[in-house]
Every structure is written in structure tokens, then in C-alpha cells.
Amino acid sequence: QVQLVESGGGLVQAGGSLRLSCAASGRTFSRYAAAGWFRQAPGKERKFVGGITWSDGYARYADSVKGRFTISRDNARNTVYLQMNSLKPEDTAVYYCAAGTSISLYEVWGQGTQVTVSS
Using CA atoms, how far apart are residues 119 and 87, in angstroms rounded to an integer? Predict the structure, then answer.
């Protein structure tokens, strides 16, 4: 089974950018059909941010991040990225990477990385 490790979180001012990385080990990402990003704010449920299919790079995003966030994958590095631009305080959350059998169904999760956006 693959192990996922997120990195790149931190504190940023509103309007700024961050790039999260999710590195896979133990099994290549490409053995899964899709990779995704989720986030969970304090006291709230975990929500889908976006996902990408490994074979053709098709990506889907939550309405709240469309036009600001971009997911990409690097086969050679066995890594998925989440580029976050024009960050807002409401983007503050723990961000989780996941791998799954489809862009809508995930079964393996990382430990999460904190993103804090100050106003």
C-alpha cells in the first residue's frame, strides 16, 4: 500500500501563494486511478478541494477554489502538487492528500499539512 506524505504548508498572508506537495512511497501513485486534495477547517467536516486522474491529467475542483488552485502530477517524482494562489483566510485548514480508485473515491490518506492564511 502506498504511503502519502504532504509538505509545503505554512502561514501566508491573504492574496499570497503556497504549493503543497504529496509524495508517495511504497507504491507508485500511478497504481491508483486518481489523486486528490481535501481540507478540514477546525470544527468542520473534511471537504473535497480537487482531484486529478493519473492517466490523462483530467482535474476537477470544488467551486470554492476554481480559478485559484491547480492540481498537477509528476510521474517521475511520484508526487502530486496543489498550487494555491490568491489565498483567502477561509482557505485556512489542514490539507490532506489522498489516492483512490476514481476522482470521487479515495482509500489512502496522508497525515495532513496545516495551511493558515492571515487577513
Answer: 10
